Amino acid sequence: MEGVTHRTISTNGISMHFVEMGSGPIVLFLHGFPEGWYGWRKQIAAFAKAGYHAVAPDMRGYGDTSAPEGAENYTFLHIVGDLIGLLDALQVKKAFVVTHDWGAIIGWQLSLYRPDRVIALATLSVYFTRRNPKGSMVQLLTEAYGKEHYMIKFQIPGKVEAQIASITPEVLFTHVFGTQLEQTLGFLERPKEARLPDWMSEEELAYYVAEFSKHGFTPALNYYRALNLSWELTAPWSGSKVMVPSIFIIGDRDLLYEFPGAKDYIHGGMAADVPFLKETIVLEGVQHFLHLEKPEVVNDHILSFFKGFSYM
């Protein structure tokens, strides 16, 4: 991507690579699975042009950032710690934060643990999930969907990696980005149905494949495999609220919007858990990767929200 500067800093015992563009208040972009910094290519220049300093890291286990071995090194606390170190290295007290997918989960946790470091939070796709005292996300998903849910399959070391190798990374990425709502949960079993969406080029697909060749898929899957440990370690925050000004944006064709109880929570209960939630936006006909599918719409919503804050 032209115009970005690539940098690497030391944080929390790892080396973290990030790209940056622009000057002004920092906007920290947190990517999801399976993207890396490149997932924000349709946001970085737009935010820099709008007067912000866009910073998009490869999070732990992705791209040119370190990938420690062992799922125990990929808890919420590890990853939030990496980001606090990044903000410290940038010598910034507070930042605007934009998140998607796994980055959304981490963004919620960052705002929960360290609201003093976040000016405002714009979250895409993954709504806040308060810690359930009955069990971890893995346990609750197993009860709701059985062992066939992809997050449950991801728990078994080596199994998904072997499936990916058998269908090739190119086909996996094509499925992840192009799968329709009704096909989402079975994407590893239907490689012949893969079709790249209109909003992604073959060149962009090749970039994702090349980035994952650096560490393989195990580090990214370790985020899922650390969910049980994250649940254990975050007991001190049970019942805590996200006390950061926020907006939430989701597509109505995102599988997450169809989870049992999701709509009621998104349009009702979430406001109690996120008291400073300013707006919930549902984009009609849009799927999971809304920042890539409808970048102008998503960017406009976030920039309009951020305009209401002074940088401190």
Automatic annotation (TrEMBL):
It is an enzyme of class 3 (hydrolase). Epoxide hydrolase involved in the biosynthesis of cucurbitacin and mogroside tetracyclic triterpene natural products (e.g. siamenoside I and mogrosides IV, V and VI). Cucurbitacins have cytotoxic properties and exhibit deterrent taste as a defense barrier against herbivores. Mogrosides are nonsugar highly oxygenated compounds used as high-intensity zero-calorie sweeteners; they also possess pharmacological properties such as regulating immunity, lowering blood sugar and lipid levels, protecting the liver, and acting as antioxidants and antitumor agents. Pathway: Secondary metabolite biosynthesis; terpenoid biosynthesis. The lineage of its organism: Eukaryota, Viridiplantae, Streptophyta, Embryophyta, Tracheophyta. Its EC number is 3.3.2.10. Residues 25-295 form the AB hydrolase-1 domain. InterPro entries: AB_hydrolase_1, AB_hydrolase_fold, Epox_hydrolase-like. Pfam families: Abhydrolase_1. GO terms for molecular function: epoxide hydrolase activity. This is soluble epoxide hydrolase.
